[in-house]
Each structure stands twice: as structure tokens, then as C-alpha cells.
Amino acid sequence: MSVKTKIPYIEQNQQRFLDELFELLRIPSVSADKKFRDDVKKAAEFIKAKLVEAGVDKAEICRTAGHPIVYGEKIIDPALPTVLVYGHYDVQPADPYELWETPPFEPTIRNEKIYARGSADDKGQMYMHIKAFETMMQTNSLTCNVKFMIEGEEEVGSNNLGIFTEANKEKLKADMIMISDTGIISNEHPSITVGLRGLTYVEVEVTGPNRDLHSGMYGGAVENPINVLCEMIHKMKDENGHITIPGFYDKVVELSNADREAMAKQPFSLEKYKKDLDIADVFGEKGFSTIERTGIRPTFDVNGIWGGYIGEGAKTVLPSKAYAKISMRLVPNQNSDEITKMFTDYFLSVAPKTVKVKVTPHHGGEPAMVSTKSTAYQAAALAVEEAWGKAPIPTREGGSIPIVALFQKVLGLDSLLMGFGLDEDAIHSPNESYGIFNYIKGIETITLFYKHFATLSKAK
Ligand code: BES
Ligand code: MN
Ligand code: MN
């Protein structure tokens, strides 16, 4: 399969661009699991080598308290605009392995898609930037200075990237940040992401009696922490899907009717959505559409719940402990720390005195919005139109990239969220994939972006 592009160099080098990505995808750089520490390092070294091959003046592996950050730059003329590219080379764990049709770290092409953990999130999308840079170097058409900052801890909260950014403001000085770690509506309807949700993530532990008990001897007379945990979770939302934590919605920015009408015009098929997920109906906050429920409204979700006996057969036990991992997706202007506190206060307040409750916060992040009025967005819109033959639709996505809000705060820079993933890519799930078409079109669009960004910046 050969994807047609406006740039001959990209078309001629397609196979090698794929081969190199495959090499990266074979490295299991799972940031969450210590077992893969050396592989994470290997992925960082691979990226550094590829940046050097592509033509950066300087490339380094920056050590952090966790996984390394790869930094590279090509400064052609300080008077020209500078683009800071951010991406991540770490991936989510591939479990459960048995649900993969082909192994997660043995990239395979089926129906013109690359199947592998990280193919879309974010190795494939991040690597498009290195290949776009190579294209511009090889065709003598680089019009901007470029800096690359590729991290290995995005999937575990980017804590060290925050520290690195604070400590390297001068080094990271740029006119804009470009990130491909989001999606488009479809290949027929290209879009650019203008909003991301924030995140609050907590783990809760509910303790009943001091040891597991015989559920016949004690059952009915002693509180069961799993039963209690379920009831407590149930109290966090009402029957209309509205979250009941006091103060939770206080800072939520409500959209104007005009903005909601614009959102409603976005191409979306509820039938296709339900069919894809094999569900008879959707569920969400009453009064909002599916696009709104993921784009502009906050959530409360249990991500995992456990306790008691879950082995084979039956064991009659009244457990001592119950646990759950809970996430809340946030929208402007909610604040992650404030929401963590509101949740904790409320959760503790609904606990009966028959149990002890502990709440442990995990990493979180703030929601972010980026302007469509910026030079970067305008240049991106031109690039998308040129490569895809259609003007992009600005969209708000439900996922989180906490570093976007942090870049706004620390570097004073907006990020351009020009990702090319599709819902069907199944990121974080078994059988993650990324379309070859999207990979190649992405490289083309990014290359065209630099041209338009330089021209529009000069005109300003
Ligand atoms: N690339 C995703 C975020 C994303 C996915 C944005 C889909 C838009 C659409 C990113 O790698 C991710 O998975 N982020 C995490 C948060 C992080 C703090 C672990 C998320 O959204 O769960
Ligand atoms: Mn990602
Ligand atoms: Mn991810």
C-alpha cells in the first residue's frame, strides 16, 4: 500500500518510515512497570539516535528521577520562529496479553493498520514529527527552528517533565508547542483538538473488621466493607448521571447555546457508536449529548474495584478490606486539587462508623483549552486543508494531557493539538492500532504546517 502525498520525498521513503517505526514499537517501553526499565531507556536511546540521523545539531538524553527525557534541537536562524515538539515514547501496559490477536510488541500490519502497543499512543504519532523533520532537512525546506522534547512518563503522570520544564524555561523557549497525541473525528472529517479534560485520580480503601471472617459465623452482624464501598460509590452520582459531590460543578464553565449548537453540528453517528461498543444504549448526564458528555462535562468513574475472595470456586468470607480506583475527568475551570479535596471530604462524610476509610490521591492534571485564533492554529488549519482536502473542525476531546495546562502556566505557551488518531485505534486497549494512511498523512500535514507557520508568522 502506498499513500499518495503532495511531497515526493515522503512517498518515496514510506517503507523505511514504517520500518523504523516498527523497530521502535518492538521496544516494550512500559513506564508503569519497573520490569521494563531497561526497555524504556532503550526507546529513549533509539529516539536520540533517530533525531541525530534526521539532522538535529544537538541531541541529549536528560536523566530525571524517573525515566529520561530526550531533547534535541535544530536552530537554523534565531530570527525565525521556533517550534517545540512534545511527544511521549512510553506506552501503557499491554495487559491482558491473551486478548491481542498478534503480540503487542511484534508490530503487524492488518487491513492497512499497524497493530502494536503504542502504535497510535504515542510512538507512531510522535515519530511522524521526526520523519517530517527529516523530510524538511533532506529537501532543504526547513523554515523554522525546531526543538524536540520527548518524554517517557506521560502514561504515569509526567511528574518529572513538570520539574524539567520549570528548570529549563530558557532552553525550551519557543513560539508554540506542537503535539500529536490526540485524534480526529474520522479520515473523512479531519479535526483539530482545542480542548482536553483534566483528571483527578484516587485510590480508596475501606476497612471493616480487623481480619477476614467466616461469613456464616459473622455475616449479618458485622459490616461488610465491600458492600459499604459499593453503597458509598453509589452515593457519588444520582439517577440522572449528575455527580453529587458538594461543590463539584461550581467552577464548570457552561457553554453558550451558540457553542452547543456548533458542537451538535459535528459529524457523529450514535448508531455507529453503539454498534462499535456493542451496547444497546448510551448513558450519561441528563440533558447532554454524547459529544458533550465526553467533551465539555466532568465525570466520575470507578476504574477498578477489588477485595475479598476472587479465586476459583467459592470461599465463604466476610472480607476485612475493600478497594477501588476512581477517576474524575475535569473540565474548565475545575481544579484537580480542589476536586480531590471535595471528593475526599464527601466520601469520608458518607462512610458509616462501622468502617475506616482511607483516600490516597494519585497523579492528576488540569483541563486545557487552546485558541483557534492563534497563528499556530491558523497554520495548522491551512496544512490540514492542503493535505486532507478539507478544512478541519475544532473539537474537544475527553482524554487528558496534563502537561498542556502546565506548559501554558510555566512557559506561557499554547499547544497545537494536531493528532491523527481514530477511535477505532483502541488506545490503551488490546489490539491498539494506527492506520498507515494516518501515519503518512500525518507526516505530510506536519511538514506542510511548518511552511504555513513560517509564512503566517512573517506576515504578522
Ligand atoms: N494520548 C492520551 C490522551 C488522549 C487520548 C487525548 C485520546 C485525547 C484523546 C494520553 O497518552 C493519555 O492516555 N493520558 C491519560 C492521562 C495521564 C495522566 C495518564 C488519560 O487521558 O487517561
Ligand atoms: Mn498519549
Ligand atoms: Mn495514553
From TrEMBL:
<dbReference type="Pfam" id="PF07687">
    <property type="entry name" value="M20_dimer"/>
</dbReference>
<keyword id="KW-0479">Metal-binding</keyword>
<keyword id="KW-0224">Dipeptidase</keyword>
<keyword id="KW-0378">Hydrolase</keyword>
<feature type="domain" description="Peptidase M20 dimerisation">
    <location>
        <begin position="195"/>
        <end position="353"/>
    </location>
</feature>
<dbReference type="InterPro" id="IPR002933">
    <property type="entry name" value="Peptidase_M20"/>
</dbReference>
<dbReference type="Pfam" id="PF01546">
    <property type="entry name" value="Peptidase_M20"/>
</dbReference>
<dbReference type="GO" id="GO:0016805">
    <property type="term" value="F:dipeptidase activity"/>
</dbReference>
<keyword id="KW-0645">Protease</keyword>
<dbReference type="InterPro" id="IPR011650">
    <property type="entry name" value="Peptidase_M20_dimer"/>
</dbReference>
<protein>
    <submittedName>
        <fullName>Dipeptidase</fullName>
        <ecNumber>3.4.13.-</ecNumber>
    </submittedName>
</protein>
<dbReference type="InterPro" id="IPR051458">
    <property type="entry name" value="Cyt/Met_Dipeptidase"/>
</dbReference>
